[in-house]
Amino acid sequence: MDLNKAMIIGRLTRDPETKTIPSGQSVTTFSVATNFTWTDKSGQKQEKVEYHNVVAWRKLAEIAGQYLKKGGRVYIDGRIQTRSWDDQTGQKKYRTEIIVDNMIMLDRPGVNQSQPQKEVVPPQDSTANDSSAEEEINVEDIPF
């Protein structure tokens, strides 16, 4: 049995590009960066970034093109595929991509992904009634 599975969580390095091929299918391409950190022998923290080319087809392509933005976090589940072609000079070129089977957007909708996310806390109303405060629970009142 063979297995070709890729699962990554990372951030988009650019906005997705959506195109429609002659057969009418949508295809969206984008890039996702993933980080790997470790401590070397001297105790220094090291970090390496990997960049992944991602391709989504059909309905996933439309969703990715509409909702994903540069800097947004995304989970991608798919398979690895390498394409080859000859460039204008006749030189063979290769591109390894993750073909999306499943995608989960990990950022909250409506939040600007290039800015750090901040929790919005509504101001306290000083005229609020004290009866709305939580009542203390007595352990003996719990039925189990």
Description:
The chain is mainly β. It has a single domain, classed as OB fold (Dihydrolipoamide Acetyltransferase, E2P). 7% of the residues lie in helices and 46% in strands. The protein has one helix and six strands. Strands 1-3-4-6-5 form a five-stranded mixed barrel. A hairpin with a 5-residue loop joins strand 5 and strand 6. The longest helix has 10 residues.
Q: Briefly, what is this?
A:
The chain has one helix spanning 58-67; strands at residues 6-12, 17-20, 26-39, 45-57, 73-86, 92-105. By secondary structure, the protein is mainly β. The termini are far apart.
CATH architectural designation: Beta Barrel
Mean pLDDT: 82
**Strand composition percent:** over 45%
Shape: globular
Tell me the CATH superfamily: Nucleic acid-binding proteins
The string of secondary-structure elements, in order, is EEEEHEE
Our measurement of the CA-to-CA distance between the termini, rounded to an integer number of angstroms, reads: 51 Å
Write down the Rg: 24 Å
Keywords: DNA-binding
Region (Disordered): 108-144
GO cellular component, one term: nucleoid
GO molecular function, one term: single-stranded DNA binding
